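User: My instructor asked us to take a sequence, write out its structure as tokens, and then describe one feature of it. I'm not sure where to start. Here is the sequence I was given:
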Amino acid sequence: MIELQTPFLYMELRGIRYDRERAKAMLADTVEQIRPVGDRLAASAGKELRGAKGSLAPLRLMEVLYTDKGYAPSTPGNPEATASPPN
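Assistant: Let's start with the prediction itself. The structure tokens for your sequence are:
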């Protein structure tokens, strides 16, 4: 980590070049690639799992997995948690 201290200090003092338009285009491409995956997950769950910004909403995902699908929460202290829903 020490070897990164000098470059980080340089960037902090002088700034960095940032191509906003390129970053915006890359984000749009990534969202376009991820959208079909979210559509498949939502279809499998039977409800929308994404939030306003398009990312998976943890509370919605937990509700589907633990309540609707019947998976047990997987925690170190829960030996009954299974990898598949109960029959």
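For the description part of your assignment, you could build on this observation: The mean pLDDT is 87. Try explaining in your own words what that tells you about the chain.
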